[in-house]
Amino acid sequence: MESQENTSPLIVIGSTEFVEVAGVCNIPAKIDTGADTSAIWASDINMDKNGRLSFALFAPESPLYTGERIATTEYRIKNVRSSHGDRQIRYCVKLPVVLGGEPFETTFTLANRSNNRFPVLIGRHTLEGKYLVDVSVMSAPRAKPEKLAKLNTELKENPYDFHQRYFKKKENK
User: Fold this and answer.
1) Terminus of the chain with fewer CB atoms < 10 Å: N or C?
2) Per residue in 128-166, pLDDT tens?
C-alpha cells in the first residue's frame, strides 16, 4: 500500500487548548491522542417521537452553559470505554469546531463530563492528518491551583490519612 504524503504542514497544538464548539468560545479542551473519539459535555439529552435528538452543551452549573438547545436527526451511537474502564453507549453528533485557528466539523460523543477537568476531550480521529501535539505546550490550564494547594496541605498535615482517603478507596474497588 502506498503512503499518501500530506503536502500541507501540520498545525502544532498543545496537550490542552482552548477551542470553539458550536459557537461557544474559549472552551478548555484536553488533547488526548489515546482516545479514539472526541467527547463533549452535554446535558438534558432527549429524543422526541420523530427521532429528533436534542441536547444542551454543558450544564447549568457550568459557566459555559447557555441553555441553547441543539437538535438533529443526524446522529449514531457508539460503545465507548471510559478512562475508568466502564462501557457506555453514547450518542455521536457532528458539530462545528475551531481548533488551532482552523474551523472544521468533527464527531463528538455526548457525555456527562461534569466530573472531568475539561468539558471537551479531543481524540485522535479529530487530530489525524491535521495536528501535531507538542505535550510541552498547555494553552488551557490543567488544574485549579487552589484545589491542588488544598490537597497538598492535607497531604503535609497527615500523609497516612491522606493515603487512606484518596488511594486506599481506589484499591478496594
Assistant:
1) N
2) 999 999 998 888 876 555 666 777 888 889 888 878 877
